[in-house]
TrEMBL record:
Signal peptide: none
Keyword entries, A-Z: Membrane, Transmembrane, Transmembrane helix
Major place of residence: membrane
Membrane topology designation: Multi-pass membrane protein
Subcellular location: Membrane
GO CC aspect terms: membrane; mitochondrion
Pfam family name, one: Mpv17_PMP22
Protein name: Mpv17-like protein
Taxonomic lineage from the root: Eukaryota, Metazoa, Spiralia, Lophotrochozoa, Mollusca
Transmembrane region(s): 44-63, 75-99, 119-140, 146-162
Length: 166
C-alpha cells in the first residue's frame, strides 16, 4: 500500500528521499570529514528539516516547471535548462539552505553566514551541478528523477554540511 501511495505522490517520494539524503550527508560530514568527537544530532535534525520540507519541494517543483516549459531533451533545450538551473534556481536553493538552518539555529543575524558562504558555495556548485543536471535533463525519465536527483544531492548536501560547519 505504501508503495502505491509513493508512486501516486512523487512530491512525497521526493521529500522522503531528501530526508534520507540529508541525514546521511550530515552524518558523513560529521563523522568522515570533520571527524567530530561528539556527534551533533541537532545539526542533523536542522539540516534534515530544511532539506526535507523546504529544499525538496523547491527541487521537485523547479524540475517539474523546467520540464513543462522546455520538454525537449535536445541539446539546445538541455543547455537552456542547465543555465536557468545555475543562475535562477541554485541561488534560491543555496539561500534556502543557509537561511533555513540559521532560523532553526535561532541566529540573530540570519544573513551573516549567507553573506560569507553564498558565493563560494555557488561557485563550487557550478563545478558539480551543470554536469549532473545535463545528465538529468537529457537522459533521465521523469519517473526516475526522484531517485537520480537525491543521489546527486547526497554528494552536494555533504558539501553543504561541510560549508555549514566551516
Amino acid at each position: 500500500m505504501m508503495q502505491s501511495v509513493l508512486k501516486k505522490r512523487p512530491l512525497m517520494r521526493t521529500m522522503i528521499a531528501y530526508g534520507f539524503v540529508n541525514v546521511t550527508a550530515d552524518a558523513l560530514e560529521q563523522n568522515l570529514i570533520s571527524k567530530k568527537k561528539v556527534y551533533d544530532s541537532l545539526k542533523t535534525v536542522r539540516v534534515t528539516l530544511v532539506g526535507t520540507f523546504l529544499v525538496a519541494p523547491l527541487v521537485f517543483n523547479w524540475i517539474r516547471l523546467t520540464e513543462r516549459l522546455l520538454p525537449s531533451k535536445k541539446v539546445p533545450a538541455v543547455l537552456i535548462k542547465v543555465l536557468c538551473d545555475q543562475f535562477l534556481f541554485a541561488p534560491v536553493a543555496i539561500t534556502t539552505f543557509y537561511i533555513g538552518t540559521n532560523i532553526l539555529e535561532r541566529q540573530k543575524d540570519l544573513l551573516a553566514e549567507w553573506k560569507r558562504k553564498f558565493f563560494p558555495t555557488w561557485t563550487t556548485g557550478m563545478m558539480f551541478w551543470p554536469i549532473a543536471q545535463a545528465i538529468n535533463f537529457r537522459f533521465i525519465p521523469w519517473e526516475l528523477k526522484t531517485i537520480y536527483l537525491p543521489c546527486c544531492s547526497l554528494i552536494w548536501t555533504t558539501y553543504l554540511c561541510y560549508m555549514k560547519e566551516k
